[in-house]
Amino acid sequence: MNIAILQRDLDELQSSPVLFDALNFQARKEALDFVRVIGKLHTEDHQTSPERVRLFQQAQALGEQLEATNAALFHDWKIRIKNQPPSREKLRQWLQPYTNYAPHQWGISHYGYENLDFLLDGVLLPQPQPQANLPREYGMVRYEPAPASVILELTERVAFTDNDVFYDLGSGLGKVTALMHLLTGVRCVGVEYQPAFCAYARQQAAALQLINADYIQADARVADYADGTVFFLFNPFGGDIFATVLERLRQEAQQREILICSYGACTQPLAGLNWLERIPPVGDDDFSLAIFTPR
């Protein structure tokens, strides 16, 4: 490794004026990634020149400062949510400085993760996080959380009532379900195939006293959706599994009014179904939120 270049980059990074800005979780995330690269190189390279040791120690110290800053901020947010729960409107105001999504900016594309996601990951999905402990069947995909800004838009476009029940199909570690409950107050149910993910999500919901966020460890093809009114999908599965789940939702739509919301590559197959109609606005690509109602 080129020690001089890494040292220069680390010095520049450490002098960044935004690194310890309370709002800038993204800057700290990128800095921590760089610190971990240096740590990995140091572990794999057994040379112990003074320059290498100094670089590693400086990176390690910076990483500890960044982790401590994040930990303190995450702790404060958890206390605010658990012991001093804000109104839904107040929470939305608190979250606004962390996102580029402006209220009622419907139909835009939501690209990647931002400060809001890194904040919520620390508050709702603390480390250590579990690994999948069941082998995936064909059509099941790896866990990937939806950008939080998608959920902000969803809470604006759907007029939730106390009678609604929100289902996140393929809920992973529970981020969408917990955030949706915090922002709307409605009962939210995550359906997750992996037992370790489901147990973790329950544990985090209990820690924050989210009494109306539930998690079901089940195969989405056979889960009970009898009380569901709004369903969210972010590329949860593909192939025959996806087709089977959509048929289940079609059957539910024959019993009562439901909405199906999607983000990602699963939107296009939904748009091709003749029993669904997409509600405007319609975004330019798969990175926009799509909401469908049965015809």
Q: Tell me the name of the CATH class of the largest domain.
A: Alpha Beta
CATH topology of the largest domain: Rossmann fold
Rounded to an integer, what's the Rg over CA atoms? 21 Å
Q: Which blocks of ≥5 consecutive residues have pLDDT under 50?
A: none
Mind describing the biggest β-sheet? 7 strands, mixed
Shape: elongated
Distance between the termini: 60 Å
CATH superfamily of the largest domain: Vaccinia Virus protein VP39
Biggest sheet strand order reads 3-2-1-4-5-7-6
Helix percent band: 40-55%
Q: Helix/strand-derived class?
A: alpha/beta
Kindly report the average pLDDT value: 95
Please indicate the percent range of residues in DSSP E strands (runs of 2 or more).
5-15%
What is the count of DSSP helices, taking H or I runs of 4+ residues? Answer: 10
Provide structural commentary.
The protein has 295 residues and is of the alpha/beta class. The chain has 10 helices and 7 strands. Helix 6 (148-157) runs parallel beside helix 7 (175-184). The mean pLDDT is 95.
Give a quick set of tags describing it.
single chain; alpha/beta; Rossmann fold; 2 domains; seven-stranded mixed β-sheet; 10 helices; 46% helix; 11% strand
Summarize the SSE layout with pairings.
Elements: H1 3-14, H2 25-44, H3 50-82, H4 88-95, H5 115-124, H6 148-157, E1 165-169, H7 175-184, E2 187-192, H8 195-207, E3 213-217, E4 230-233, H9 239-253, E5 259-262, H10 267-271, E6 276-278, E7 290-294
Parallel strand pairs: 1-2, 1-4, 2-3, 4-5
Antiparallel strand pairs: 5-7, 6-7
Helix pairs in contact: 1-3, 2-3, 2-5, 3-5, 6-7
